[in-house]
Amino acid sequence: MLALVELSAALDGSAAFPQTMKQLLAEGSAGLQRVSSLLQRAQADASVMAKTSHALDGIHFLPPVQDANKFLCVGKNYRTHLEELKRTDLIKEMPTEPTGFIKLNDCLTGHDTDVERPPTVGHLDYEPELVFVIGKAAYQVKAENAFEHVAGITILNDLTCRDTQKREVASGSRFWTAKNAPGFGPLGPYIITMDEVADPYDIWVTCSVNGQERMRVNTSDQIWKLPRIIEHFSRLVPLMPGDMFSTGAPGGVAVGKPNAEELYLKPGDVVECAFENPPMVLRNRIVAPA
């Protein structure tokens, strides 16, 4: 049975523990090794586990990284997504290098939280995305060394107001308020460290709404893989521990389907974005404004 272990409570009092994920990641591999050792120690002692573990259904989840210096999202990065968007005017040409936009920390929310659909939003769409979390500072990094700077992966549901996005694309905007309303960034529930990821480019990503599967796409379909992404962005932008890269929406979103009007998210819908292996599920409910 999965449980959350409060590692700071398992300390013997000899050392302080980082208070945020970004602080932990800033400690580098030594920090992650310390976490691993603490977890093993706790799991080996039933009395410690009894004091420090919590059932997941009793946890209020926050985004695993709430205060990233940079949350960069790569656009137009799945072949299946590009194919389906040929039915709309949301894409005009194939990118010749990685493109991106910024996801604001203010829009992030955690697993199993409610997301309000603003009254001004008519077409709210889902976009499950593989996110890489930076664990080691990276500047002017070559592609072959990129994974040395990655701590782990998590899931983003890059919720998008298609009404606004259509206007922003037409105007040439790259800020995209369509993706940055409060709650439009469900993230988590946790970070899977890279030692538990057999191959980040053989992960099946799924999205279900009210228990009905809407998409199932493999990350091998990505056009720009993480090594190229990090090399491209770190040419001029220093990447710091806790920074994140979301790697694009797979094919299967509502806007790309002939019956899109029926599929856009409505209050009452429960959305689950998931990885099949390594397993992880991000669940959120769409609600009307209070």
Give the gist of this structure:
With 290 residues, the chain is of the alpha+beta class. It is built from eight helices and 16 strands.
Topology:
Layout: E1 3-5, H1 7-10, H2 21-26, H3 28-43, H4 46-52, E2 53-55, E3 71-75, H5 79-84, E4 99-102, E5 108-109, E6 113-116, E7 124-125, E8 128-134, E9 150-157, E10 160-161, H6 162-171, E11 185-193, E12 204-209, E13 212-218, H7 226-233, E14 244-246, H8 260-263, E15 270-275, E16 280-287
Parallel strand pairs: 3-14, 5-11, 6-16
Antiparallel strand pairs: 1-2, 3-4, 7-10, 8-9, 8-14, 9-11, 12-13, 12-15, 15-16
Please characterize this protein's 3D structure.
The protein is globular. The model has no long low-confidence stretch (mean pLDDT 91). A hairpin with a 4-residue loop joins strand 15 and strand 16. The protein folds into two domains: 3-58, no CATH class; 71-287, Fumarylacetoacetate hydrolase, domain 2. 21% of the residues lie in helices and 27% in strands. It is α+β, with helices and mostly antiparallel strands. 39% of the residues are buried.
